[in-house]
Design brief:
Elements: H1 3-12, H2 17-42, H3 47-73, H4 87-102, H5 105-113, H6 128-135, H7 144-154, H8 156-181, H9 191-202, H10 215-256, E1 264-267, H11 274-282, E2 292-296, E3 309-312, E4 331-334, H12 342-362, E5 374-379, H13 385-391, E6 395-398, H14 399-412, H15 416-424, E7 430-435, E8 442-443, H16 444-455, E9 458-463, E10 470-472, E11 479-480, E12 485-490, E13 496-497
Parallel strand pairs: 1-2, 1-4, 2-3, 4-5, 5-6
Antiparallel strand pairs: 7-12, 7-13, 8-11, 9-10, 9-12
Helix pairs in contact: 1-2, 2-3, 3-5, 7-10, 8-9, 8-10
Length: about 500
């Protein structure tokens, strides 16, 4: 690698080894510089040691200066890689591009730090700590420092317009008050005094060191006060709108960095999903020892109960699944979006299932768990049930078919809809699936009678855990194989779950 490429990589290619070595050296001097400032401010050192501190301080500033010079000098303006031009144009692009690069917030920190060469400004070295925090891989999805800087960069035109308006108001008011008050006000003798008064007034600080004396000056002051209120309101609106998104991303980081474990993740949410959340509360899924995380690609709805945690993200993107700590979850529910057509909703559900299983395979998730994550998926079209199972669902609920089947069955079996609705509710007896201990070859009637006697629940069938075949209301002499799961009706779960 040539010298120029090596220097460029050391400053602008984080993936290279030379860049990591360079940053390691710079960080070492950053920590040393901050330690010197802390020692000077908190310790009483003899003169000879103070001279040593000053010498070390100059060395660190030289290192910072070399680092900044290399950073700016090796920067390549992107226009040169896109457009052709004359030699003069290329020189202009080099100069202008580097000036713009130096105005970037993190680079400006380095520039300001060099002002510490002035003895009275040595404390500015502490600003290098911001660059140190920027380099630490503490945040994964949203680095707050970079987020703030990016927010200002993306809304640069708004801030430039507001600051430009502020500058025009301050200069106009400062010049006007100078022309009106000079010779009549002993506190205003120079144009700088007028500018200072205008800046203090428009920001509503009001030190009181300068005040207008003439009637005309008071009129200018009144207009400037009103402009100051508008300016502050404008700044407040711009800052709040640009910082809000950063705060939302930090909330995602907050959850990822917490100790949440054994939670339930609900992928997808719309108006119809509110009933699902209410059912989860009735089933006591939400509690002190388990939380339900709703994961959807938009802002938290106002009607979402406070018991549920909302994380904004797209469950169909593997790169965002760690936001909800999938590796630490107990179960996942994939809800079909009812705002889409049935085909689109099922396609989204199946894509989410594939994404979850791909993430589990890539991270070797199942190898680190005592039991695999149980995934329940909602499918709206019966033809897509097999696809959902193939995509990785442990259980598929055909909500549309189930609802229509209940309606049709109620016509021939009056009252069945009410009964089945009650069975599906946590407030009454419900259907559970679990295992009981019995020897292979034991008759169904014997097992059902024993479970009824010991646990007070009614066995209504069984499911072969090997083939998945479900048998309801079998004859009493049907023999059961060891390990088959029983389907029973009861007020609570009394058998070991499958």
């Amino acid at each position: 690698m040539r010298l120029g490429e090596l220097l460029y990589a050391s400053q602008h290619r984080p993936s290279t080894r030379i860049h990591r070595v360079t940053q390691g050296v710079v960080w070492t001097f950053i920590v040393l510089s901050i330690a010197l400032v802390a020692a000077e401010l908190t310790l009483e050192v003899p003169p000879w040691l103070h001279d040593v501190f000053v010498a070390i301080d100059h060395v660190t500033l030289v290192v910072f200066g070399i680092d900044l010079a290399l950073m700016v000098g090796t920067f390549r303006p992107p226009e040169l890689d896109v457009f052709k031009g004359s030699a003069l144009w290329r020189v202009q692009r080099h100069v202008i591009g580097r000036l713009r690069f130096m105005l970037r917030p993190l680079v400006m920190i380095d520039v300001i730090t060099l002002l510490a060469l002035v003895p009275a400004l040595r404390v500015l070295r502490v600003l290098r700590l911001l660059k140190l925090l920027n380099g630490i891989r503490f945040f994964r999805y949203s680095n707050p420092i970079l987020g703030v800087f990016r927010s200002f960069a993306e809304n640069k035109l708004l801030y430039q317009g507001t600051l430009g308006f502020l500058g025009v108001v301050v200069i106009a008011a400062g010049g006007s008050i100078y022309l009106l008050e000079v010779g009549h006000n002993d506190d205003i003798k120079r144009l700088q005094d007028g500018i200072w008064w205008a800046l203090v007034t428009v920001t509503t600080v009001g030190f009181g060191d300068i005040a207008p004396k003439t009637p005309e000056g008071r009129i200018v002051a009144g207009v400037l006060m009103v402009c100051g209120m508008f300016t502050l309101a404008l700044f407040a609106g711009i800052v709040s709108s640009t910082i809000l998104e950063i705060m939302m991303r930090l909330r995602e980081e907050q959850f990822r960095m917490t100790a949440h474990t054994n939670h339930v993740i609900v992928c997808g949410y719309d108006a119809g999903s509110r009933m699902l959340l209410e059912s989860l509360m009735e089933e006591h899924v939400v509690g002190e020892d388990r939380e339900v995380i709703v994961f959807a690609p938009y802002e938290r709805p106002t009607d979402l109960p406070d018991e549920f945690v909302w994380i904004r993200g797209d469950p169909t993107k593997e790169s965002e699944l760690e936001k909800v700590k999938v590796a630490h979850a107990d179960a996942i529910i994939v809800v079909g979006p009812r705002s889409k057509t049935i085909v689109e909703a099922d396609a989204t559900t199946i894509l989410t299932l594939f994404t979850l299983r791909a993430y589990a395979a890539k991270t070797k998730l199942e190898e680190r768990r005592k039991k695999p994550i149980y995934i329940v998926a909602e499918i709206l079209d019966a033809e897509n049930v097999a696809h959902a199972y193939a995509a990785g669902a442990n259980e598929v609920i055909e909500t549309t078919k189930l609802g229509f089947a209940l309606i049709a069955h109620a016509l021939t079996a009056h009252g069945s809809g009410e009964v089945l609705g009650s069975v599906a509710s946590a407030s009454a007896a419900s259907i559970y699936v679990g295992r009981a201990e019995f020897a292979s070859g034991t008759s169904y009637g014997e097992v059902a009678a024993r479970v009824r006697s010991e646990h007070g629940v009614t066995v209504i069938g069984f499911r072969d855990t090997a083939t998945g075949e479900l048998v309801l209301s079998p004859s009493d002499d049907t023999t059961l194989a060891e390990g088959q799961a029983l389907v029973y009706l009861g007020n609570r779960s009394v058998l070991e779950g499958v």
